[in-house]
Design goal:
With 386 residues, the protein is an alpha+beta fold. The chain contains five helices and 22 strands. The mean pLDDT is 80.
Length: 386
């Protein structure tokens, strides 16, 4: 009897240990499942929060682009229309208080509330919004304070979106079993004005602001004076252009189309650089073949010595041999100042073109990793770079 009693007690003890282990294992399984659920919720919320940061950074970038190239900005209470700055003003631009506030208001007062993980998100108007410069060579962002000397120019906006104490942490549904009450989540995005890739279609030249595709000329990539600060490029329409070519953009390269563009009766089409962007270019013109070219220049001049500012496409290297009405890839755009020659005293057939650097023009920025975007005119519509 004694032996049986000890066996029974042993079995009861073993069953008790199994029950304890089963309960412990079940608790662990529930905890793991809860943490997996929480992690899934965290992952979804983190993705939504990244969308908030991306949207906010793009809103700030569009406001910055409008400050340079003109446009409209919704600052949360009204639509503001900054005027376009001419090239010289852009090149010496420093961030001022008014523009800084416009950018921040465009971010903090969105048309539709930001939301992530079922909660509205507020972008704090402090260190969570930073205006700065994005270096496309080193892929680095440098913050710039109001009044910081230029260069570098402000060309990028960085935003941090949060689900933490400032916007209520993400509640832990099951993590509380592991003494986790909530999760702090942040997401960062940087939107920058990078080299211009897409120039939208244009109205007749008389309605164009400075800086668009007004002058129907392209520059050969091999042109030795293409660099910033180089000697002027001499263009004489009575001679076959050297390292330059006239263009009809995406229309057939013929004299009728060229004259229609000059006269403003043919709309300058949307123009793309890099990744498939091409245009029609052709060689020299006789003066009689371009009767409206000089009046076009006169109608757009801005100062003394008389000049006007425009965007010119740079076409793929053809060793400075004038193309014969052929479609050639575009590798970028440059801002240029077209001056009457010689010495600002215009003639009907000769012009000087000087390349301007660090200038923003109306159009979409391009992918900084596109190897076919080689030149530095910057778009007014930002892209996400980080």
């Amino acid at each position: 009897m004694l032996e049986i009693s000890q066996t029974t007690k042993g079995r009861h003890k073993e069953r008790g240990s199994i029950a304890i282990m089963a309960a412990f294992t079940l608790t662990i399984v529930v905890l793991i499942m809860g943490l997996v659920y929480d992690f899934g919720l965290w992952f979804v919320t983190r993705a939504e929060l990244q969308n908030v940061a991306d949207t906010a950074a793009m809103a700030g970038g569009r406001a910055l682009g409008a400050i340079y190239a003109g446009g409209s900005v919704d600052n949360g209470t009204q639509i503001v229309n900054p005027p376009r700055q001419i090239f010289t003003a852009q090149q010496t631009y420093t961030l001022n208080t008014q523009d800084n506030n416009l950018i921040r208001n465009a971010i903090t007062n969105p048309p539709n509330p930001y939301a992530a993980g079922g909660a509205n998100i507020t972008i704090a108007n402090n260190n969570d919004i930073t205006v700065g410069n994005w270096n496309t060579t080193t892929n680095t962002f440098t913050p710039l304070a109001v009044g910081s000397p230029s260069p570098p120019q402000p060309n990028a906006i960085q935003v941090i979106a949060r689900r933490d104490q400032s916007n209520v942490p993400l509640a832990a549904m099951f993590g509380s079993l592991a003494n986790i009450t909530g999760y702090n989540i942040t997401a960062t995005a940087t939107a920058a004005l990078t080299p211009l890739q897409f120039v939208p279609p244009q109205n007749p030249p008389a309605a164009l602001p400075p800086g668009q595709l007004v002058w129907p000329l392209g520059i050969d990539q091999a042109n030795p004076n293409l660099a910033c600060g180089a000697l002027p490029i001499v263009v004489d329409i009575t001679q076959p252009p050297s390292c330059t070519a006239w263009t009809t953009y995406n229309n057939a390269a013929n004299q009728a189309n060229f004259n229609q563009i000059v006269a403003g009766t043919l709309q300058t089409p949307a123009t793309l650089a890099g990744n498939g962007g091409t245009a029609f270019f052709f060689g020299g013109l006789a003066e009689a073949q371009a009767p409206g070219l000089f009046p076009l220049w006169q109608a757009n001049n801005l100062g003394n010595p008389i000049f006007f500012e425009t965007v010119l496409p740079v076409y793929q290297n053809s060793s400075c041999i004038p193309p014969a009405g052929q479609q050639i890839p575009i590798v970028g755009f440059v801002n240029a100042r077209v001056i009457g020659a010689p010495g600002g005293n215009p003639t009907t057939n000769a012009f000087l073109i000087t390349v301007q650097c660090n200038v923003f023009s109306t159009g979409r920025s391009g992918d900084v990793n596109d190897p076919n975007l080689l030149y530095g005119t910057l778009g007014s519509v930002p892209v996400l770079v980080q």
